[in-house]
Amino acid sequence: xxxxxxxxxxxxxxxxxxxxxxxxxxxxxxxxxxxxxxxxxxxxxxxxxxxxxxxxxxxxxxxxxxxxxxxxxxxxxxxxxxxxxxxxxxxxxxxxxxxxxxxxxxxxxxxxxxxxxxxxxxxxxxxxxxxxxxxxxxxxxxxxxxxxxxxxxxxxxxxxxxxxxxxxxxxxxxxxxxxxxxxxxxxx
Length: 188
Prior knowledge:
Elements: H1 15-34, H2 40-62, H3 67-94, H4 105-114, H5 117-121, H6 132-164, H7 167-187
């Protein structure tokens, strides 16, 4: 007998989950190196980075019984990363450091680097050598990539909902199919 519950999880295979994991790890290193211990900002950026990662996992697990919850938690992950993005931009501005725009030569090099196998293999390799400006711009680049991927993931989740419906619809359809199959068997 086939069940009506879809498979859940699978978030570890998502590229966006891997990127948010890297953002979280880098943010923890950044906060320890550049933000005063006990500061509200330090706690906030660490929690925002963690939330970006954790809500992807939680939404994926919740997808088994609630597409609505999956979509909401994916959006919470995106919102948390948007908050973290603002924190990095604030840090640069408040410390009179440069935020590299999209066309800046260092941004272009950075974007190529984060796409490389070298970065995939060891994303924290240069973390101890980066100054705070480089660190912030790396995290901003990664956050922009992650929020783009999360917007795409939300679009996919919406399409899945439109195609398959929610759990109540799936349960109803499974029950009707079960009854129809049972009646067919009894009629033979």
